[in-house]
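Changelog entry: the Ras association domain-containing protein 8-like protein record was regenerated in this release. Current contents:
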Amino acid sequence: RSSDLERLMRGNEGEIREGEFWENELEMERSREHKLQESLGELRKNLKESVQRLQEVSSRSQDLDRELTQERDTVKRLKAAHRLSLTGTKEASARIRAEIEAKEQETLQIQASIIEVERALEQAVMSSQGRTQELEELNKELRQCNLQQFIQQTGTSAAVFQWKPEDEEQLSNFAHQLPPSHRNGDIHISDPDSPPRPTTKQFLGNPRNLQNPLVSSLTPGEFHHWRE
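Regenerated structure tokens:
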């Protein structure tokens, strides 16, 4: 009986160990199930959030599609307007370029005309200077001729006057006051409406004129001959 009891006790111990093993396994399975439940809850929560985000993304995608369509339409309109503007700009640019070229040609013509006018002006100035110098020489020669004719007509000796260059102005004033008969070489023509010039007697009878060096240098006989 003791042996049977021992076998029975060993059998119970084995069953007890086996029961404890399966209890441990059950507890481990329950723990894994609990963890799986928690994971499943997290997955469901994440799935719900993902679905919500997907809806938001889908709505946003629709909005973006509408905006993209509007942008495409706007781009088409802008391209069409740009083509029209580019055509107008090209025409305006060509017109402005043509105007600029015309202005440049006009400027070149004006510059050429200015150069020609400057050349003509220089030639005219040179010619005028030459004529002025020639006229001065002719006037000087004419005054000398008038002096010689005056000397010849009055019979006055050239040595009496003792001609000096500074007497030229006095001689000119003196010759212009002589009567026309004593100014054969003068180029001036009397105006018919102007008052008559003084005669030789009137000129020599004026005491102021007697102070003229050319008149006062006459000898008494020559002076008397003039007044006669």
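The two ends are 216 Å apart (CA to CA).
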